[in-house]
Amino acid sequence: MPVIARVARPSQLSETVSKTIEKWILDGVMAPGVKLPTEKTLSAEFGVSRAVVREAISRLKAEGYVASRQGAGAFVEARPGQTSFRLADAVDPAGPVATAHIFELRYIVETAAAALAASRRSDQDLVQMREALLRMRHAVSERTDGTQADDDFHVAIAAATGNPALLRFIRFVGHQFFASRVPTWNAEGHAAGRAEAAQAEHERMFEAIAAGDGVAAREAARIHMVEAARRIGIDTDHWEPAPRAPWEEEALS
Amino acid sequence: MPVIARVARPSQLSETVSKTIEKWILDGVMAPGVKLPTEKTLSAEFGVSRAVVREAISRLKAEGYVASRQGAGAFVEARPGQTSFRLADAVDPAGPVATAHIFELRYIVETAAAALAASRRSDQDLVQMREALLRMRHAVSERTDGTQADDDFHVAIAAATGNPALLRFIRFVGHQFFASRVPTWNAEGHAAGRAEAAQAEHERMFEAIAAGDGVAAREAARIHMVEAARRIGIDTDHWEPAPRAPWEEEALS
DNA sequence: ATTAATCTGCTTGTCTGACAACTTTCGCTA
DNA sequence: TAGCGAAAGTTGTCAGACAAGCAGATTAAT
Description:
The structure is a homodimer.
Chain A: H1 13-26, H2 39-46, H3 50-62, E1 66-69, E2 73-76, E3 84-86, H4 87-90, H5 98-120, H6 123-142, H7 147-160, H8 164-175, H9 182-185, H10 187-191, H11 194-211, H12 214-231, H13 246-252
Antiparallel strand pairs in A: 1-2
The structure holds a DNA duplex.
């Protein structure tokens, strides 16, 4: 019986197995392209049934660590970081600046997406944006929740770039701040005029994109991002080693 | 260009099932916290064995979409997945435009990073860049391989932004094109003057960043990215001419 | 009557054995 | 030697069974 890293956490056998194999790959014990032991061998060495091993490999396949070919075997696909980008690896979740750093990343891609959308959007893209915009308008007047429409609007812009990779990434980064939109759209946000303010910013973005004005679209998106950051209380004063965000320098002048 | 929903791949039953359930969750058919059907029910409805359903759920657990408790059931997680970004999900690997889409994403973040680096770089950051630059110079004159130094140079710029999330993402995206640098730095590339050309572009980027000129840094990076795309045969005609943030335009005046 | 303990059915976790689909290897034949 | 086909090995799927744990209903105790 080989060494089995006894992880205290997983009460699930399949998780124990998958974590162990994942560690093998991470530590370079199994290089990319290498065929990993057969399911029968693994089940024997781990002392579990083949079903458990299969579930473990299923996890690893989902995470992109391995790929298997029927009749041939399972092979190490690649090292982590080559196929997937994890925010948990990118920033220290406990760090106070993590949110600001991720938001800056979002700021970069969303402003670029707005500019691209202005020059590439189809009529159908505009329909999607307008539809989300109308739902937000309705949410403002009725003082109801507009977080979903808000999210849909941003996704529609990303989709209008015609770049699926960019679309997916914006959805991914934007999702990290889904909960952050609540203080804008709840009763308090309506009362304080935050929902109305956000809506006005959205309207300007839409107009610029509809007009095909990339520069104006980027500027409108920039303003929206800056205001959104302010609304969720991102403290740019504490930004790491770098002095400050670009929009702050502008505010200074 | 419409959405590419080409997912005909899954010949694996478990993948078909997991993708279907994933779609349910993403489309909001199953809200967070909701208990999904029992394994027996799912196996009956999909017409597959329980083992297949379990492997599918195993995938979903690995991706963070669901969590299951023995005896109780499997429940949709509050934060549906979205803990990692996988390019394999973002683009159709078989599509001819996949590389161009990913490169555009890289173009967006690298040009922004260059602009940020110009305003935030420390003296130590400059040392890192200069070191990589010297190694590339040496590679050009000696006609040796400079891919690693090339990569290090771009990473040094990303690091100078002081944003670890941005750094990590640039490393991730840049790695997708690591192999693409070979035709620039191999014997053929040296002979055709591609290595020398790339080096000149790098020098301009460094000078602008060292001078603290964000606008020039972005423009130099833009040129380098466009040329790099051209060297690996990516069409950049439809790209935005010179995406530039408003604060930089202000800096011009 | 209220509360606590127990029971019972249901669900997930694991095991075993079997067969189908496919790949690789190797020995045989021309 | 080259090509072919059988055989062994491996993953994919299925079926049934039992253990472990949970939730609601039933029963017992105060």
